[in-house]
Amino acid sequence: MNIIFRLAWRNIWRHPRRTWLTAGAMVFSNVLLVFMISLQVGMYAMMIDNTLQLFSGHMQVQAPGYNDEQKMRQIVPDVVPLADKLRRSLGIDTVAARAWAFGLVSSEERTYGVGVFGVEPEFEPKVSNIPGLVESGRYLSDSNANEVVLGAVLARNLRVGVGDELTLLGSGRDGSFAAAILTVVGIFESGITDVDRNFAEIPLAYFQETFYMDGAGHQVVINGASLDEAKLLEPKVKALLPADEDLVVLDWDALQPGLKQMIQADMSSAFFMYFILVILVAFSVLNTQLMSVLERTHEFGVALALGLSAGRLGRLVLLETAMMGLLGLVLGVICGALVTYWVSINGFAYPGMDEMAAMFNLPDRMYPRVTLLSLSLGPSVVFLFTLLAAIYPAIRLRRLHPVEAMRAN
């Protein structure tokens, strides 16, 4: 076996330039795959975190069907006590109760229909980044105050600013008429037009009084320290829900199905491009090994005449290819990891990226995320296709006739 390894190693260095060119192609493709897959993983993680931190949270407790229909009467009874119970039992403060209603908001000049959220001013900043996006004025502070925070586009459409009054009209939980006079205390700008145009937040206690909620709400939003921790929290949250209430726990996938579909679509297009790159590398290896086999036809003919089987010669060619593939894999992973680690610290950006990132509520610099999967997936596929590319040259050896092969120049 040692002789076979020594022969294989000697054979791949018969033409050092050709070997390095082929290995270099594998190294380049592996570096590119490690970096791009790591960049995708990091971008998806930032996209998910930024989208969920804006408003959805990692999971929510709701009434069955509320996520699809959002009817006023699909309630979570005693929503504030339930949120307090979850905070105490889970040992985290990233839990907040909410309620929602559709209403008409009127200024002196204009009227618009908006989604009005009742939130807990103390805990909402822990589950949403909207409180930190207030550009003018301040965020809500008093649970019982008749104050409101608006999106920038909505404030512009209504032609109001901080300190102006708005009239809120809607329908209460019991079907009665709900009305309130609200003072604008803050204007936020998330960068997402639909949010800035259609969102308004008021204190939860005042919301419950205005819309006759009788202590009920519509959501309990829960955030974990990360998505992985949120998955561990989900069964604990389910176990803490009141047994006599019909409530469900929805994870981020159920709350934001479009986000996962967008990620899957992006992954599909990216992996198609990666596949083309791998195929090009495989053809490069195929060309190298086929040339190597043709150059050694006379040598293989002598070996066959001496009794060496075509199968062993084929395994020799495969071993040579595996050695060259391992060389490209090891160097590619090392170089790719170094490049990716450097970019993960300093970030990656290109001209015009800030405008595109703003559309998805992302920062203007991307940071790759180095994981075992991102380091191994691309190079492993390249190595596999490298071995597959060597099958054809190995099969050619089975069709060699010793006499004809020895006559070859």
Write the layout of secondary structure elements.
Layout: H1 2-12, H2 16-56, E1 59-62, H3 66-69, H4 79-90, E2 95-106, E3 111-119, H5 124-127, E4 134-137, E5 147-151, H6 152-158, E6 165-171, E7 177-188, H7 193-198, E8 199-203, H8 204-210, E9 219-222, H9 227-240, E10 248-251, H10 252-255, H11 257-295, H12 297-305, H13 310-346, H14 353-359, H15 372-389, H16 391-398, H17 402-407
Parallel strand pairs: 3-8, 5-7
Antiparallel strand pairs: 1-9, 1-10, 2-3, 2-6, 2-9, 4-7, 5-8, 6-7
What Rg do the Cα atoms give?
32 Å
What is the number of E strands?
Answer: 10
**Which strands sit side by side, in order, in the main sheet?**
2-3-8-5-7-6
What about the largest sheet? 6 strands, mixed, barrel
Structural class computed from helices and strand pairing: alpha+beta
Helix run count: 17
Strand content: 15-25%
Report how far apart the termini are. 29 Å
Taken in chain order, the helices and strands follow as HHEHHEEHEEHEEHEHEHEHHHHHHHH
- How many domains make up the 3D coordinates? 2
Instruction: Give the proportion of residues in helices.
Output: 55-70%
